[in-house]
Write a structure and sequence with these properties.
By secondary structure, the protein is of the alpha/beta class. The protein has helices at 22-29, 40-43, 51-54, 66-78, 109-117, 135-141, 143-147, 159-171, 202-205, 231-246, and strands at 58-62, 81-85, 128-131, 151-154, 176-181, 187-193, 255-259, 264-268. Strands 3-2-1-4-5-6-7-8 form an eight-stranded mixed beta sheet, with helices on both faces. Strand 2 (81-85), helix 5 and strand 3 (128-131) form a beta-alpha-beta unit. Helix 4 (66-78) packs across helix 10. The longest helix has 16 residues, at 231-246.
């Protein structure tokens, strides 16, 4: 399976044929218009869900472990196109908290996940592509693919990668979401930013983080690889934020912290201004 040799083209993963084509089943067995399977435009006001602003938008998910794999499933059902980026391989510790199966051990995470997601596509032309590369190498080798992104979501457990993603997105005025779950599974965090958002960048919210740390994930105090199931909650929140951002809407908060252990939730509103000496957004106030 060859991924990532062409510098300019969106390289689709060469997958085996899916045994059951849901659209073919609908066409031949119950004679329904295949497009009616996506009837959300008929059931919801476009203020709630506008398919024209969500379907087939290019969403880059960096990190497809516990949170990223489940999030990718939700995004496929939401109707976005997916560009999955992760250089890691599947280990036994991944099996209890992700969508990977025992047969996937030692395989590339993005290849295994792309195969898993293929039969869940919600539109005929929905695209799912995987790049088994670190984010910086993905940018160097597939610049045009990266430039096609409408949104970047980081679920990686590495501070250096998180801030590389944040810097890339801020420099290009590209909407992005950062999320993760704590090592003890008691806390989760979701942060979003977009050109129309008020307040500072992710770095302004977390000025004490180490930007060069090779582990952790963008917030030294709470984000680390998850070890249980709270990532399902985080994935749902990020999916909702994806819809909000792609529809260019706003929320009354920029960051949400949830203490699952005590049942407490804390929303950080737009009260964190741009820091004068911020290494990412270049100051401001």
């Amino acid at each position: 399976m060859d991924i990532g040799k062409s510098k300019d083209d969106w390289k689709e993963v060469d997958l085996p044929a899916v045994e059951t084509d849901i659209y073919k089943v609908i066409d031949t067995q119950i004679s329904l218009d295949p497009d009616k399977i996506n009837d959300r435009e008929n059931r919801f006001s476009k203020k709630i869900f506008d398919p024209s602003k969500v379907y087939n938008k290019n969403v880059v998910v960096v990190g497809v472990g516990a949170l990223g794999s489940l999030l990718s499933f939700y995004l496929v059902k939401l109707g976005t196109d997916l560009i999955l980026v992760d250089h890691d391989k599947i280990s036994p510790s991944n099996l209890n908290r992700s969508l990977f199966l025992p047969k996937d051990l030692c395989r590339s995470k993005v290849l295994a996940l792309t195969e898993f997601l293929e039969p869940f596509r919600t539109t005929r032309d929905q695209r799912i592509a995987g790049y088994a590369l670190p984010f910086d190498e993905f940018l160097n080798r597939f610049e045009k693919v990266a430039e096609s992104a409408d949104l970047v979501i980081a679920t990686v457990d590495n501070n250096k990668a998180v801030y590389q993603i944040v810097r890339y997105c801020k420099n290009r005025e590209l909407p992005h979401i950062i999320s993760g779950v704590s090592e003890d599974s008691k806390f989760l965090k979701v942060f979003w930013d977009a050109p129309w958002a008020e307040g500072g960048c992710f770095r302004c919210y977390h000025p004490s983080d180490s930007m060069d740390k090779g582990s952790g994930s963008g917030c030294d105090d709470v984000i680390h690889p998850s070890i249980c199931f709270p990532h399902a909650i985080a994935a749902g929140l990020v999916t909702y934020l994806t819809k909000v951002v792609l529809m260019e809407d706003c929320l009354d908060y920029r960051e949400l912290l949830m203490n699952i252990g005590s049942g407490g939730t804390y929303k950080r509103k737009k009260d964190v201004t741009r820091k004068k000496n911020c290494e990412i957004c270049g100051g401001g106030e």
